[in-house]
Amino acid sequence: MRFAICDDNKVDIRYMQEVFRRTAPGHALDAYNEVEGLLTAISDGVRYDLLFLDIIMPEQSGMEVARTLARIAPETSVVFLTDSNDYAVEAFSVKALHYVIKPLTDAALIECLHRLEERQHSRRRVHIFSSSGIQQMIFADEIQYAQSNAHYYDLHLTDGTIMKARMTQSEIQETLGNSFLPISRGLVVNVEFIRQLGTRSCILKDGREILLSRKNQEAIHSAYAAYVFSQLSQR
User: Fold this and answer.
1) How many Cβ atoms sit within 10 Å of the Cβ of residue 119?
2) pLDDT of residue 235
């Protein structure tokens, strides 16, 4: 996993780095002493599993940064670091993983890691689709691909079943998010279901070879590379 610290106090950063070296030596840790560097890195594609944020900083407060992260990196969990309990209620409102009074101790870090593990296990994305007037909840990782069929999309699930949803390609793409690629006209594929992506075609895990949309080949490769990079950055 990959972690980060953002704190304007360099002494506090060095102290926390020592705590991490003792308690979580197998994980990558980046440190920022100003908000701009952190947000620039995230905007450039760096992804973190867990971010330790000082609440009181001169550029933006930790609360403001957390609200920004909720938009641009919602998969990143946040732990607030502070000298006071005064912000605990506000921290709860932005769904912080934890609220730690400085200094960060080994025990507090271990508790943060346990909470992160529990959150990640329960974070499978759920989508709600309407089929024949009935709403059904489906986990994103249960969908292999979605194929257009007249005015519907057939959702092909990992258990072999097919569910119909009355949606356009733009609607289904917006619903499923960037882990699903529009490979060709009317076909949106779960990136995890792609075995190999070639220059002009891709091979799915069921052995089928699908030709890529000619006009979108570059965009498909860019989106695939960005997704793979984001996954590797989190490990």
Assistant:
1) 14
2) 39
Tokens representing residue 121 in the block: 């296990």
Helix (H, G, I), strand (E, B) or coil at 70: helix
Q: How many residues does the chain have?
A: 235
Direct distance between the N- and C-terminal alpha carbons of the chain, in angstroms, rounded to an integer:
4
pLDDT at 125: 67
Residue closest to 2 by CA, chosen among 176, 120, 107: 120
pLDDT for 35 equals: 94
209 strand-pairing partners = 203
Task: Give the helix/strand (H/E) hosting 114.
Answer: helix 106-121
CA distance 8 to 57: 6
Domains of the chain plus CATH, in order, are: 2-121 (3.40.50.2300), 126-233 (2.40.50.1020)
Low-confidence ranges of the chain (pLDDT < 50): 232-235
Q: Is the peptide bond before 103 cis (omega within 30 degrees of 0)?
A: yes
d(CA 54, CA 79): 9
CA–CA–CA angle 195, 48, 12 (5° rounding):
160
pLDDT digits (tens, 9 = 90+) for 219-231: 998 888 887 766 5
Pick from 144, 213, 139, 161: nearest CA to 183 = 213
